[in-house]
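Tokens for Transcriptional regulator, LysR family. Go.
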Amino acid sequence: MNKLESMAVFVRVVDRGSFSAVAEEMRISGTMVGLHIKALEEHLGVRLLNRTTRRQSLTDFGQVYYQSCRRILADIEDSESQAFALHQKPRGKLRVGCPVSFGVHALSPVTAQFLIEWTDMAVDLVLSDKSMDMADEGLDVMIKIGELLHVNTLVARPIAPYRSVMCASPAYIKRAGEPITPEELCHHRCLGFAHPIAANEWTLQREGKPVRAPVNITMTCNNGEALRRAALNGLGIIMQPEILLAEDLQHGRLLPLMSEFQPLAKPVHILTFANRQQLPKIRLYVDFLLKNFSASLYALNLE
């Protein structure tokens, strides 16, 4: 007998609790249902069901085998659905998670272009600087900035690194002077992003080597745009993503500092669930992001 068919019969018997109910549902005889169960037991060399004239119950091994069969049959069904979907036009809604600054200045405009080209698609864009769990948030795709941890069930696709820039307004530099070395930062007013663990130092790099610089944090905030506005008002020195500050740098509203000491770039990845990455709508969107984010994100924002 076909082993997969016998496994399907076995699962239905456990779910329905009756040979006759399964026979009627699958349009086979009760005898055939019994033969499927018997074939599995003979193949495995162990009893799966304890049967009496009134009811049947799972043996200890039967319980384990039942769970395995359910997973196997579900995986097969999911794979077949994905294969059938490959021949269909992508449609439906995607739920996409992303940090705020990246989402506003990079992902949102690219997603808008995607939706213009693919009119049967919709995107629910979830922006948050808090750590997001893809399963808990019901996300199909997530942009992760920083090092990857615990991604065993996910597929990670790298895109352009996320670069930051250290800068200040001309008014602040005129009033407080321009720092030349990292050691001077502790004598300046600095604006810091609020993390769960407060950071009183910034990590820079010079010729590829990390340099830790103690800083005097005058203002913290959990929103990069608020820090940007404070810097534009001349409050202090800011170190934030280039995509957030690009236009201000381009028009001279903010001036870059200490060109020899650059903030460390952070890796950026597109995350999807391994068992869903080939769904047409997910594959199409991810490929679109990979195409648009393959170059510098800073260059993207300045175009």
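Confidence is low (pLDDT under 50) at residues 298-303.
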